[in-house]
Amino acid sequence: MADGTSVPLGISAGRRHARPRPGGVTRLLRRRSTIAFLMASPLLLLILGLMVFPTCYAIYLSLLNRHLTGWEGLSNYSFLLRRDTFRMVIWQSLFFAGTAVVAKAFLGFVLAHLMNNIPGKRQRIWRGLLLVPWVIPEALSVLGWWWMFDPSYSAFNWVLTHLGLAPVAWLGSGWIARICTVVVNTWYGTPFFMIMYLAALKSVPETLYEAASIDGATWIQRMRFVTLPLMRNIISITMLFSLIVTLADFDVVRILTAGGPQNQTHIFPTYAFNVGIESGDIPLGAATSLFMLPILAVVAFFTLRGVNRRTKETAA
Amino acid sequence: MAIGTRISRRKALTIGAAAGALPLVHIRTAAAAGKVSVGFWDHWVPAGNGIMKKQVDAWAAKNKVEVTADFITSVGNKNLMTIAAEAQARTGHDIEAFPTWEVHNHSQSLEPMDDVMKELTGKYGPANAVCEYLSKIKGQWMAVPSSSGTQTKPACGRISAFKKAGMDPTTTYPAKEVPTGEGADWTYDKLLALGPSMKQQNLPYGIGLGQTSDSVDFAGGVFAAFGATLVDKAGNITVKTDPVRQVLDYYKKLTPFLAPDTLSYDDASNNRALISGKSSLIFNPPSAWAVATRDAPQVAADSWTFPSPAGPKGRFIPYLPYFWGVWNFSRNKTAAKELITYLMERPQVEARANAVSGYDIPPFDSMDDFPIWSEVEPPKGTVYNYPIRKWHGSTPHVTAQEASPDVAVQMYNQAVHTVMIAKYCFQNQSMEQVLAWANNEIEGYMR
Fold this sequence. Notes:
heterodimer; A: 316 residues; flat; B: 447 residues
């Protein structure tokens, strides 16, 4: 077996006496698992340095007092949960991430189907065009949206005014501002869903649809009994991935509203920045940002469990 | 063969003697007195960085110190991130520019600067009270108030609009010394009284109720002018008091004359409102006027900077200083302190003020006589009243300064004042609901 530990017989037989037996280190280095570990080690180092260490450091910071001089235990967390403003931040974070992910998934699903039905070259053109929002750096595109929402000089209000309607305080009124942040995040993230779903759609065997058609299945039945079951895993994984990214989406909220009006659009990362960096309470900021962790852990657990179960069922 | 490389006893003694004598010869290179790195604030006015670099280079050449100057922007709070990162890592620049609250936030990582301040105050008199409040901790100066980036936020109004409304700011506050009390009738009641005329002229006040600095600074000045403090000197919460109620009621009367987007104002909104000719009055440093000289010269020529209105308890001008501090992990504290001292000497401060058209406000009252503020135009003398003059009867002020700085910084950055006003005036919450909310918030800041 060519497992990296054996040597071809013809060569070793002739030189058995001339060559000393490899030492322990050499044998260790020749093992396939060692080589695999060494080749993966740059990535492991990156993960350790950029993910594991900052997470552990954030946990450590969140347990300190404001001046980073003493141990506070979990009091930063319990303090946050007692604050009206922070409870609003939790609610807004869940609203923002939940609505934006569902909207992106729905729109991405619809667009992927529309795209899948466009033939050949034209599909490539449309695919390229629809990917544009996702390709532009988020901070820049959000600035563009911010200019359009700006109450005094915005394009939207210019149109409304010319239609004889009253201008709207897009970013100055609680619910409207909340919805604006969701809209911008949806605009930015939908192409990701679209491209993932399109790839999944292309992998569904055409024969299944043909069989369903022969059985007299309607469009809805084909969708329900063929497309969705085969796409469930990719839908779950995409939504989980998007939830993680959306919940941590600093740019949209920071640039559009900076958390206002009256803290109503703050989500975990923007509020963490506000209390941690701007207000000089780094432990409280760390605790705020870590509130995402249990939420995401629970969602990830159930999503990945579902994916694993379905994968095993398919394999069986 | 090893003969060629062998060192004889005589040769070894010679090398040893030469090495021993080297410090006595003291060859002065460009970095003979070490290295200093500085994280300056990246000035809004482009010429501000150039003059700073020039001054630093001159000092470096004279003192044989190798100085590295970085200009760190405050856009996106990058400077705050840098400060936090350097404090955590305990490495980075030797000197750092600290905006308003950051000296207190990082005082434990800073080197006391009493020796520098002793020298500077000995020459130029005391620094103002806001600087002392923000930088003197437990009796020690932890950073030196700088002029670079230090600003006040007085009124900047459209002369024509004010004249139409019945007040001429150029005569009330001309570009020269006037008897104290000349502008006594420029009050918050007057601001209210002029409101209908401004509204009629379609030039609402560009006063924000957002959660960023400009909105918070103005609101803090109004609270102070009404004697409304949210915390008293003993640290007790004093939200539920009559002066606070008066301020909220005052704002309710004022909001009809504010720009319709007041709730979503950020620190650029008021500038844009003035420059685009959509507002009669903003409260800002002369940066809006400076941009208008380029983009809207007719607006710039019609703008005049003058003090904020007065309230029952006085006239309070928002004052936001920058500081230069030296990290206690700096490797060249002596040179760092010498550089700061040099940069805060009158000739250097004046040269920098000239380069930025008077944007920078020195922390020492004795430096308020630079001619630049009289010379800048159009119109001539437009920013003469930008520094706080003795005859203005004004007090420099930073929002929430009635509280201890570690509480005040949270009140300031979480915009308690403007959120209270917005809740009361726009969310239709009752006075008692708003006061209860503020009480609860501030209780949290005091944990």
